[in-house]
Specification:
single chain, alpha+beta, 2 domains, six-stranded antiparallel beta sheet, two-stranded antiparallel sheet, 5 helices, 34% helix
Length: 294
């Protein structure tokens, strides 16, 4: 049970609180504070104790600083919340897209430098046909892997280097399995990217027609490794190794390989397009100046 000394201490605290509170309120509102003080003295504080009398500082209109009411603050917070609900998800999504594109640019540059070096080391400067001397995936995969900083190599025998379930549309709605199988040569690089290779060719001389200048028709690059979303056109991109005008990594959906515009592939949001096939998105990204505008 509270004794009189405890209540007296409470009164002193209440006095200071009320004094501070009244600094910014109108004189007409002081009656509430005085009434509370009288009730405290009448019911709980003995006239013999040494509790100081409550003194109110008079209202000075010249120094009065108006503040927001609680209702106004709540309204503003509500508006901020509504705006944030609609803008923050879009901002986060756009930021993530730019991260994917930046990583893709890095991979694209690294691969093209490696392909030029492969041609030089193969003995045919500017021509990959000397390097691609076998149609065996294991043999060519081993040769290609030496040009990268590999932290894990699954070859064509083990799993764990590439996501087994991959969505073929960039919105992730059509997942397919079997992508981490022995049908592919797979490895993970030091920068966290997963690489999957398939279908090498020994008929990729740059003196032949365009259709046979592809030294490898399946190069999948997952720019964030095994992390999600694992969707073609988002974090996984398909290329071919081209030998047309010198060694180059060529994008699926590019002008000479199932062009995304004329084939209506990965054209979602472009001139009313609705296709979300992720296979052909690398061509669109490069066409649009390294932007993921879908």
């Amino acid at each position: 049970m509270l004794n009189k000394n405890t209540i007296a201490r409470f009164y002193v605290i209440a006095r200071h609180w009320l004094s501070a509170l009244t600094k910014g309120i109108h004189r007409s509102n002081l009656s509430c504070g005085r009434t509370l003080a009288r009730l405290l003295r009448r019911n709980f504080v003995s006239p013999r104790n040494d509790v100081e009398k409550l003194t109110f500082r008079p209202f000075n209109r010249s120094t009065f600083q108006p503040a927001f009411t609680l209702a106004e603050v709540l309204i503003v917070l509500g508006i901020i919340g509504v705006v944030a609900e609609y803008t923050i998800p879009t901002l986060v999504a756009n930021t993530q897209k730019q991260i994917y594109v930046t990583s893709l640019q890095k991979a694209f540059s690294t691969w093209n430098q490696a392909l030029i070096q492969m041609a030089n080391d193969g003995g045919c400067i500017g021509d990959l046909s000397c390097f691609f001397d076998s149609a065996d995936l294991h043999t060519m995969g081993d040769k290609i892997a030496t040009y990268f900083k590999v932290v894990k190599n699954c070859d064509t025998t083990t799993s764990g280097c590439f996501s087994d379930t991959v969505a073929t549309t960039f919105d992730g709605t059509t997942p397919t399995s079997g992508n981490d199988s022995t049908s592919y040569y797979r490895f993970i690089t030091a920068d966290g990217m997963s690489i999957s290779l398939a279908t090498p060719s020994i008929s990729c001389s740059n003196s032949t027609d365009a259709l046979t200048k592809m030294c490898m028709t399946n190069v999948y690059i997952d720019v964030n490794g095994l992390k999600k979303p694992n969707a073609l056109g988002r974090d996984i991109f398909r290329f071919v190794i081209d030998n047309d005008k010198g060694p180059a990594l060529y994008p699926m959906g590019g002008a000479k390989f199932n062009y995304w515009k004329t084939n209506n592939r990965c054209d979602y949001g472009y001139n009313g397009g609705t296709n979300k096939s992720g296979y052909y998105c690398p061509g669109r990204i490069i066409d649009e100046g390294w932007q993921m505008s879908y």
